[in-house]
Amino acid sequence: MNTKEFNSNDASLSVDLSEARQAVKENRFKDALGLFEIILKDDPNHIDSLYLASVSSRYLKKFDDSKKFIERLMTIAPDMGRAYQELGHIYRDMGDETKSVIHYRQACELNPALLASWSSLYKYFTKKNNQPAADHAREQIEKLQSLPPALLYIDQIMNEGRLGLAERQCRAFLKKNPTHTYAMSLLSEIANRLGYFDDAEFLLQKAVEFEPNDGDLRMKYATILRKKQKFAETMEQVNILCDQFPDNHAYQAHKASEIMQNGDHEEAIKLLDNIIEKNPYNFSTFTSKGHAQKTLGQTDQAIQSYQSAYKIKPDHGEAFFSLANLKTYSFNSDELNAMRDQVKRIDLALRDKAYFHFALAQACESIGEFDEAFFILKRVTKLKMIKANIPLIEWMQNCKLK
Description:
Largest sheet: none
Number of strands: 0
Strand content: under 5%
Order of helices and strands: HHHHHHHHHHHHHHHHHHHHHHH
Shape: globular
Structural class: mainly alpha
Number of helices: 23
Helix content: over 70%
Low-confidence stretches: 1-13, 385-402
Distance between the termini: 60 Å
Radius of gyration: 23 Å
């Protein structure tokens, strides 16, 4: 393509997506943006074009335009990790570190293969002296940097839901590298998402045999065993993890979860308190502790744990949902307004968005705001929140709304 000026409103123009991508690679962001705008006139919901139009606008320092492109993308692909990473980049370049970190964390939750997000989080946690979080980010960075580019790409497309392509490419990689344990774990995760749990278990079992000291592999193996309700085998693997990595809070938390599943909630709380003592910013541990306290009938303590969780991470939807699910908790006006603000957000992962909708509907119903409650429940179906794996039917059966 030549560098002359062109008008994206010219209906005679026809653009090949590869041409626009090449312009991005060559740092010709003004040309690239014009090309993506042409594509988006014909297909306003073209995911790649929205993403790269946002990238191009950011490099041109057109931050408002960049946010508009990425927010439109999020309405189409609400769980696309790269979109949240790009939003983090936008706020970083605008000088808003707090918002950038929020979106980098969301990006890593949705797609753990995003090296740029982990790198930004590592710098932030190191600066804030949050050593456990910094150590975790550094471990992820080192793991990702050690992988072949082909596997990083497979990881990316798998986490964006392109499972067919990811499976084909992963199988092709394994034909040439049959004992590559990370590739085996990727294929296992694809099988897991497609519902082939036996295949997922077999692949992870073999991977663990090849690399018995790889904690991530064993953790994935324990998770699939739990999904298949092999409780004794799950506990065995979790105990091995905690023996191998006694300072790993994630493994300790998983052990606490398994102990809770086996009915010893008091022992689980002791483990969770030990984690919290070492890392008081671990919001998910507070949530797990609340679940254990709720089961023991310690409602007041459970409320405090759930509140501690959302104070650390205000968009932690599970904490609000758990409070609502107590059925006896009354949200105050600040909490109600916080939930109303959260459900309006475009830049919120689908799972948290679902939790907030359910919690707010329950809260509105409890104070007699039935119209708002019904409106919120209707939005749940429109947003296709069933994909978030929230027990919607059970929840609706348990609440008073009919």
